[in-house]
Amino acid sequence: MLKRLLLLLSLVSGAHPLLHAQASPTASRMGDALLGGGYSTAASDYGPRFTGYNFYGDFDFSQHLGIEAKYNYVKAPSSSILYERTYEIGARYFRTYGLLVPYAKVMVGRGVFNYPPCFGPPADQKVACANLAYNEASGGFGTDVKVRQWLYLRADLEFQHWFSFKGTPTSTPDSLAPQVFSIGAAYHFR
Q1: Domain-embedded: residue 59
Q2: b/e 58-67 (16+ beta carbons within 10 angstroms → b)
């Protein structure tokens, strides 16, 4: 009996490195991703509110940090020529409180401003005044609401500053600092 007990103990102690209760990971994720779009409205320095749309993508690579890329297009309500377009990328900090995911962001990018038509020679002939691009920076905040595991709703407010903006002949120089409010929905990749 003692021989059997010693044999069993030697087998168990010899097999110990091969035996463990923890499962080895078979896959790991680098982070969470969202891809979405929505409706935008902007308080521009050029008259009435501009309206349009946006597309965005978020990649969260840690528990509270991520990056965001965003395209925004808004235009004047009475003109198909006067518009603002931005291409941005930057960092975002977020927290999760149940179904709410509030965040703050800082972004840099490029803004394109298309001026309205002006009149030049010959008389009453419309010509485009300018379509100029400027470097811009923005800060903002918002919140995502988890409606389903795969569907998030978003409300976002962004404060932009366009550097070296010279304006049009009828505007104040260096005056482009739109505030853009957006609502939308995103697909959450699981």
Answers
A1: yes
A2: bbbeeeeebb
Residue 131, both tokens? 């379509």
0.90 exceeded by pTM: no
Digits of tens for pLDDT over the chain (190 positions)?
667 766 666 665 665 555 555 555 555 668 899 999 999 999 988 778 999 999 999 999 999 999 999 999 999 887 767 889 999 999 999 999 999 999 999 999 999 988 765 555 544 555 556 678 889 999 999 999 999 999 999 999 999 999 877 655 555 556 688 999 999 999 999 7
Per-residue three-class SS string for 9-21: HHHHHHHHHHCCC
| Residue 94 domain-assigned (yes or no) | yes
- The CATH number linked to 139 is 2.40.160.20
Residue 6 lies in a domain: no
Collapsing DSSP states into helix, strand and coil, what is residue 181?
strand
Sequence length of the chain is 190
